Inverse folding.
């Protein structure tokens, strides 16, 4: 299988180059040259299969030309070591709980897959890889813990000062070993821009092997399709159409859901639910796609003003904007609306984190406007990861899971840097 750049379909590379480079030289994102369609027989028997059995089939469909059967099983076994249950919150409304992994966030799936795939691809190499990661919250913790102790890989995480929850910070700033955290005096989009500039800098790339573990990397992005297949397999078979509502920031997660749909999973519609960083919802309602300065909110992992994965959304529909808008509906919500939803759902017996609350609200609004649907919203992180926000909204004291509480005991170790690429470049050159 070859992988092409979204900026130039004629530029095609191998799986190894796509994963290790992360980003194409022209700043495009890599996409598989073709999207395999799974058999109707397989789709019809999803409910009979385990999470791992589903994983073997889906990953094999994409990677069988490049990896052995044993390698594919090893990848899936390493990735799917925890469950992703759907929980009925109310009639026709289900939560897909993606927070049962090591860092209690959905990105654990992609980070574990990415680290394992990189180690397989580098097994016979003596190269030292530097993984550059920009994070607005959960990406940093998932990647740091997924790559912790992996030989031949150094991870450098850039995060915006004062704009990540304390618990999220602790999960990637206290680990040490091969994990370094850089605290940038700026916003997430600044961190993301600096990472992209590093990938394109000829001087750095002549001397260092740089890659990414953000969702721009296919090894982080593609495995997220697995839990859409699994969630669909556990939905009631009642004749109703199915909609997935995805709280969205960089739009890798919803793009993975659309990938699953393109592979044959009969999802009827998607909801792209955001906070007031609403570039994509505005576009889906007819506005021109136009990047904006990110705005800080209580759902900080979605504080993205220039979503990196937007080109993938278009690529998945062959560049057809009308088809994209036919299958994806956009909604956005203020902090006040998010808190109100958290309070409303808590009163009915379920605790949401602020990102899940945005997804829930988008799902409810869609179902209210469209009859005949049952839906799933993605609960992307444990409420404890946003303890201060949740406790304030719900006027309660959360008990943290032991895994989260343990991180709080660690000592934060960071290097502060300015919002300046040259300073970042100098740091990389001097350190490595």
């Amino acid at each position: 299988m070859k992988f092409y750049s979204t900026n130039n379909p004629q530029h095609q590379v191998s799986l190894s180059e796509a994963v290790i480079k992360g980003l194409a030289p022209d700043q495009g994102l890599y996409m598989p040259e073709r999207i395999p369609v799974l058999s109707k027989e397989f789709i019809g028997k999803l409910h009979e299969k385990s999470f791992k059995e589903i994983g073997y089939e889906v990953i094999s469909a994409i990677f069988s030309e490049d990896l052995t059967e044993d390698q594919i099983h090893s990848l899936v076994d390493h990735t799917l070591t925890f469950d992703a249950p759907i929980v009925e919150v109310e009639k026709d409304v289900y939560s897909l709980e993606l927070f049962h992994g090591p860092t209690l966030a959905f990105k654990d799936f992609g980070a574990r897959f990415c680290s394992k795939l990189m180690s397989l691809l580098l097994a016979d190499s003596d190269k030292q890889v530097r993984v550059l990661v920009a994070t607005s919250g959960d990406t940093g913790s998932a990647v740091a813990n997924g790559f912790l102790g992996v030989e031949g890989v150094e991870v450098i995480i850039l995060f915006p000062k004062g704009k990540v929850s304390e618990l999220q910070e602790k999960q990637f700033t206290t680990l040490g070993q091969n994990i370094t955290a850089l605290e940038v005096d700026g916003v997430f989009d600044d961190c993301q821009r600096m990472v992209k500039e590093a990938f394109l800098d000829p001087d750095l790339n002549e001397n260092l092997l740089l890659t990414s573990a953000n969702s721009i990397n296919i090894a982080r992005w593609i495995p997220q399709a697995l839990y859409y297949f699994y969630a669909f397999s556990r939905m009631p078979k009642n004749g109703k159409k199915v909609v997935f509502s995805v709280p969205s920031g960089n739009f890798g997660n919803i793009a993975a859901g659309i990938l699953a749909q393109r592979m044959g999973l009969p999802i009827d519609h998607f909801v792209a639910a955001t906070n007031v960083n609403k570039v994509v919802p505005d576009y889906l309602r007819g506005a021109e796609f136009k990047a904006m300065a990110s705005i800080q909110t209580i759902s900080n992992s979605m504080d993205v003003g220039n979503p990196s994965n937007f080109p993938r959304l278009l690529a998945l529909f062959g560049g057809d904007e009308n088809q994209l808008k036919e299958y994806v509906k956009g909604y956005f919500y203020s902090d006040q609306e998010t808190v109100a939803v958290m309070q409303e759902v808590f009163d009915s017996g379920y605790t949401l984190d602020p990102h899940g609350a945005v997804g829930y609200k988008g799902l409810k609004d869609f179902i209210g406007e469209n009859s005949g649907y049952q839906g799933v919203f993605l609960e992307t992180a444990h409420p404890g990861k946003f303890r201060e926000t949740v406790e304030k909204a719900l006027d309660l004291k959360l008990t943290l899971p032991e895994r989260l509480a343990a991180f709080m005991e660690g000592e934060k170790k960071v290097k502060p840097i300015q919002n300046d690429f040259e300073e970042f470049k100098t740091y990389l050159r001097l350190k490595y």
